[in-house]
Write a structure and sequence with these properties.
This protein has 6 helices and 10 strands, in the order H-E-H-E-E-E-H-E-E-E-H-H-E-E-E-H. It is an alpha+beta fold. Strands 1, 2, 3, 4, 5, 6, 7, 8, 9 and 10 form a 10-stranded antiparallel sheet that branches. It is globular and about 70 Å long. The two termini are 37 Å apart. InterPro entries: Pyridox_Oxase-rel (IPR024747), Split_barrel_FMN-bd (IPR012349). This is Pyridoxamine 5'-phosphate oxidase family protein. It holds the Pfam family Pyridox_ox_2.
């Protein structure tokens, strides 16, 4: 892989080779963006994902052209980011955000048959723990319409970068408030569909308890 894709050139002090930090970010977030090139044109597709040890599990429709392209062997980049706060400095130029981000690169492997079933269950359990035991199994038609893929997480295939802390101390006198506005996310009160049956299930409570 090209060195410029695996080495931070701007603010390299914000980078980290810590696999623990990478795993924490991937476990905190639910959505990333898959990027690839199809017939010379850039494609970017937002996808739900789940980390499963040393791989990312991805899924999508068999009718999605970009996903058919990458399962046929095209390289991808997968980006995940979390915004943890807005950094308010003495000027808009100096203002920023606290964030954690990662870009993973490589080739996905198309999962089939039992591997696909296990991967899709794992992804569902990652998002809604216990939901697979509360609902019916997927039908053969639903299986046929769904791609499941894995992206290996290997040394040298990812970049992690973060910013923490407050604004830098200004070099000259100023007359403005400065600091950090922390940003957090929570799940709200469950809103049942008109046709919903029964009480809010354990899987939804487990989802809310994550945040």
């Amino acid at each position: 892989m090209r060195p410029d894709l695996t080495t931070l050139t701007r603010k390299p002090d914000r980078g980290s080779s810590s696999r623990d930090r990478l795993d924490t970010l991937l476990d905190d977030e639910l959505v990333g963006t898959l990027a690839t090139v199809v017939d010379g044109d850039p494609w970017a597709v937002p996808l739900l994902f789940a980390r499963d040890d040393d791989r990312l599990l991805l899924h999508g429709s068999t009718g999605a052209g970009a996903l058919r392209h990458v399962t046929a062997g095209a390289p991808i980049a997968f980006c995940v980011i979390a915004i943890d706060g807005v950094v308010v400095a003495e000027s808009t130029f100096e203002s920023s955000a606290n964030y954690r981000s990662a870009v993973l690169r490589g080739h996905v492997r198309n999962l089939r048959d039992d591997e696909r079933a296990r991967a899709l269950d794992r992804l569902s359990e990652r998002i809604l723990p216990g939901r697979t035991t509360e609902v019916r199994p997927s039908t053969p038609k639903e299986w046929a319409a769904t791609l499941a893929m894995e992206l290996p997480i290997t040394d040298g295939s990812w970049l992690y970068k973060e910013r923490t802390g407050g604004p830098g101390e200004p070099a000259e006198e100023h007359q403005a408030w400065c600091g950090v506005v922390p940003m957090t996310r929570t799940f709200g009160e469950p809103e049942p569909a008109p046709w919903s049956v029964g009480l809010v299930p354990a899987s939804v409570h487990a989802l809310r308890n994550r945040r």
